[in-house]
Amino acid sequence: MDIGEPYMQAKASSANPLQDFLNRAREAEPQQHSELLSEAVDIIAQQLAPVPSQIPPNKKEIEKVCRGIGHDFNGILANIRGMVEITQMMVPDAPENVQNTFVKILSMVERGHHASEMIRLYGKVYDCQKKQLQLAPFLKRCLNDIRIRLEMPFFLEVPSPDDTHLLMDEMQLEALLLQLIKNAQDAVTQVNEQSIQVALSVTTDGQLQISVHDQGCGIDPDVGEELFQPFYSTKKAGTGIGLGLSIVKQIVMNHDGSIAYTSSKTEGTHFTCILPVIVT
């Protein structure tokens, strides 16, 4: 059976929560939009949760499903954004509480777009194009972009010498670093000491080691390897769909590496990736 069939069947069903959501969003009062958008993020995660068990190891089909879901979800969000922006132009002198509602709705739309992009990235992660790259200039560009994107500083240790070369997918290495650092950023938002350390080093047996440590409140020890499963999230509902670390693990697997983590309530969480990608 075509892997796209379950999704397309659900999409066509009148009982599809996403379609029900869109119908309600079209008829909702402005003060209901923020609540509806929060619901939309939860619905998309629920809709996608059964998909991994249905997906065979067919990379093309995985990409097709993720692309289709991402496209449809972006369409819903674009409609909502358009309605809000038109309404803003129609009532430029709206009361402050109404204007605040508009801002909240657009913020939720941005969160929805992030969820959609994560779905699309998950579909692309199986396509690995390895090439040789020099680590030092890559890190300078990549980590500067991540700092700007996340708007948060982090402490960085880099390997020596500067002429280290890797054989790996450049875009996937950037995605791996971004997702690990973003995960650490999310972990420290609720603590006073918002400290993140990122370290890259070359092991004695010539492998690249990437470590990301945060001073957050830790991960429940019962979670274990489930943390890397698609759509598993320790965050509260509406703040993530649980794809970041599963993307990281697949990237590590693409490069024949390994990933592990340790965590405690007092010491935070420490992720370590070992990648046999050093060019000698």
UniProtKB/TrEMBL annotation:
InterPro entries: HATPase_C_sf (IPR036890), HATPase_dom (IPR003594), His_kinase_dom (IPR005467), Sig_transdc_His_kin-like_C (IPR004358). It comes from the Bacteria. Residues 68-279 form the Histidine kinase domain. GO terms for molecular function: ATP binding; protein histidine kinase activity. Its EC number is 2.7.13.3. One of its GO terms (biological process) is phosphorelay signal transduction system. It catalyses: ATP + protein L-histidine = ADP + protein N-phospho-L-histidine. Coiled coil: none annotated. This is histidine kinase.
